[in-house]
Structures are given as C-alpha cells and as structure tokens.
Design brief:
Distance between the termini: 42 Å
CATH architecture: Beta Barrel
Structural class: alpha+beta
Strand content: 25-35%
Helix content: 25-40%
Largest sheet: 7 strands, antiparallel
CATH superfamily: Small protein B
CATH class: Mainly Beta
Shape: globular
C-alpha cells in the first residue's frame, strides 16, 4: 500500500538508489499520462522504478522502462507493464530540459511517483551518473559525518 499523505501528497514509490548512482543537479515535477488500470495498480503501490529514465523526443517527454504490473481485476484491455508513458510538462520546461540535456552525460531520472490532488505525478531529476571512485568518495563522506555525530552525541549529555 502507498505511504500516508505528506504535504498533500500520497507517495507511491521512491527510487532510493538514485542518490547512490547519480549526482543530482535539478529537480522538477511532471504529470504522468496513464490508463485506468495502471492508476489502480499505482494506488496499490505496485511499481518498479529500477532502470527507468526519461527522454525528450521532439517536443514531448517520455518515461521509459517504468514497470507497472497489470491490475489483477482488469477486464478492459491488456497493457504492457513497461510501455513508454508520456510526461506532461509545459513547453518552456521541455525547451529548458532539451538545452540542459544536450550537455554530455546528463540524463533525466524519476526520483518518486506520487498522487497530488488525485493526479499521478513524477518528480524528475536532471542528473549525471557517478563512477566507481565518486561512489566510494560519497560513502566515505557519509561515514565521516556519522562518526562526527556519534562523538558529539555523547559529549553534550547532562
């Protein structure tokens, strides 16, 4: 089941590995164009964002490899689980994305999927993939900050 609403949002899924695999530069919100049974599956919290990405194609943005399994009580039509889904953005935002995405190595990745006022939304990030040394460096920084917090935690007890 989806997580309870926070800030008027009902969070369905988050891509936790994104912060480990990518260096995030900019975030934005986009609408997600879905069919009826897909919405029901999303409301059940059944979605996999592993390996999904967005791409600007012409004047539209599409989300690829987002896996939404078929709804079990669907009687209307069979929908492929990893079909390409259209993202709803303003033309100015698409032009801005197109300019920034032309920089070598930048890609659009989804960070989380949620419902806001009943509409399915995706939080997209303009990101650059981390290499092995970059990942090790970020892990070292996290460990150092944890150790510092542990040391300070014990000193200020009264």
């Amino acid at each position: 089941m989806a997580k309870p609403p926070s800030e008027g949002k009902l969070i369905v899924a988050t891509y936790r590995k994104a912060l480990h695999h990518y260096e995030i530069f900019e975030e934005m919100e986009a609408g997600l164009c879905l069919k009826g049974p897909e919405v029901k599956s999303l409301r059940d919290g059944k979605v996999s964002m592993d390996g999904s990405f967005a791409r600007v194609e012409g004047t539209e943005v599409f989300l690829h490899n987002l896996h939404i399994p078929p709804y079990k009580n669907n009687t209307v039509e069979d929908i492929p689980p990893t079909r390409t889904r259209k993202l709803l953005l303003h033309t100015k935002e698409i032009a801005k994305l197109l300019n920034k995405q032309q920089v070598k190595g930048l890609s659009l990745i989804p960070l989380e999927i949620y419902f806001k006022r009943g509409w399915a939304k995706v939080r997209l990030a303009l990101a650059k993939g981390k290499r092995g040394p970059d990942k090790r460096e970020s892990i070292k920084k996290k460990e150092a900050s944890r150790e510092m917090e542990r040391e300070f935690k014990g000193r200020f007890k009264v």
